[in-house]
Amino acid sequence: MPVWKEVNSSVGACARSPPAASNGTGHGRKRLGGKQEVGPQSSGAALRKHLEKMTHWFHRNPLKATAPVSFNYYGVVTGPSASKICNDLRSSRARLLELFTDLSCNPEMLKNAADLYFSLLQGFINSLDESTQESKLRYIQNFKWTDTLQGQVPSITEDEAKEVHRSLKIAAGIFKHLKESHIPKLITPAEKGRDLESRLIEAYVIQCQAEAQEVTIARAIELKHAPGLIAALAYETANFYQKADHTLSSLEPAYSAKWRKYLHLKMCFYTAYAYCYHGETLLASDKCGEAIRSLQEAEKLYAKAEALCKEYGETKGPGPTVKPSGHLFFRKLGNLVKNTLEKCQRENGFIYFQKIPTEAPQLELKANYGLVEPIPFEFPPTSAQWTPETLAAFDLTKRPKDDSTKPKPEEEVKPVKEPDIKPQKDTGCYIS
Fold first, then answer.
1. Residues facing 151 on adjacent strands
2. Which of 99, 118, 341, 376 is the most buried (most CB within 10 A)?
3. How many CA atoms, within 13 angstroms, populate the side-chain half-sphere of residue 271?
4. How far apart are CA 254 and CA 237, in angstroms?
5. Which helix (H) or strand (E) holds 155?
């Protein structure tokens, strides 16, 4: 219904796309992270220069766009407290939308703006006496947002990586909370393929978890953790992407093909990672023949991921077209697989003389830690501006009656103009 569409769209956009750009590791469908520096370098120009050095080679649906909302209820608003609520709603919503594309914004600024807006909006949603009843204003306002699929009728610091990681877990928690607590209350079920539909919400939850786990993997590699742990994390991440893809598999291909192609290539990419590091583990256990076979499987999957990158770039669908295989984060894995395989083959020819199995080893890997769970989400408390007197100042009996006999023209929702941040090929996935 009207208000929950607003909640899902704008909180979801806020969670999935804090506008400080890509997290730089190639992780994330929406831009997250990007910590603002302190001091003279914190100007917009300096931040833009910093962001332009980041690598992002991930799938990105366009930012969701919304029609303007004035919160003008002529006749209904009968007192100054109600008028102030409406003015504050209008200004706080406008500010939140501005921050979506503000390159100088950081996650804390975005959260504060979202909390302010939704604390005010709570009076349109819930009863002030904390009962289970809805506010009498629940249906006073309609919100229009574009849909994710059906459209409109690099180098980062450890602190930045932590911001990205936490933002993605918060995003997963937001989508999970909406799916479990609010979307089931809709009087009219969401249409198939629309943003409130359960398959899309579930895909968002899983993908947020997968992308947060990519940050975990990047950090584990930089800290030179045991190959067995990295292999297990990569395998779990590949499974997340496979699960997200399965969630979207029954959607109309004309809308979901590009998104699913991204999920396919990420699944292949991280399965290749798992086989690569599993091969290192086998070699350390003097199982050189099995290590070679594991690396051969990694080589095959990496080649498949390369092919999927090309297909992804050629697939029509929402979101800008990028070239994942051209970025260093992608290319580094290819070099790692090649070098590790050659090392195993040399050692087998000089030392082990082991037979190479015909079948690839079964990956039965389970990470003991580092797995991502959504952070539980709750809306901010209702603004203190909402009192029984303020609510009483909204008189719905004076609301103008709609003339249902006259068809209303569909209002065009203009797409969001996003800042153009060009990826560079000379940066990779480093966490310092």
1. 147
2. 118
3. 25
4. 26
5. strand 155-156
Asked if 292 contacts 356 with a C-beta cutoff of 8 angstroms, the reply is: yes
Residues 6+ apart with CB under 8 A from 278: 227, 228, 231, 294, 361, 363, 365
In three-state form (DSSP H/G/I as H, E/B as E, the rest C), the secondary structure along 161-179 is: HHHHHHHHHHHHHHHHHHH
Angle at 415 between CA 91 and CA 34, to 5 degrees: 70
- Phi, psi for 384 (deg, rounded to 5): -65, -15
- pLDDT digits (tens), the chain, 432 positions: 456 567 667 656 655 443 333 333 333 333 333 333 233 333 344 434 333 333 444 556 677 888 889 999 989 999 999 999 999 999 999 999 999 889 899 989 999 999 999 999 999 988 888 777 888 998 898 888 888 776 655 457 778 788 888 999 999 999 999 999 888 888 888 888 888 899 999 999 999 999 999 989 988 998 899 999 999 999 999 999 999 999 999 998 888 999 999 999 999 999 999 999 999 999 999 999 999 999 999 999 999 999 999 999 888 887 666 677 777 778 889 999 999 999 999 999 999 999 999 999 988 877 767 788 999 999 999 999 999 999 999 999 988 776 544 555 666 788 777 765 554 444 344 433
Strand partners, 241: none
Residue type, 352: Y
DSSP state of 137: T
Residue with tokens 């009207």: 2
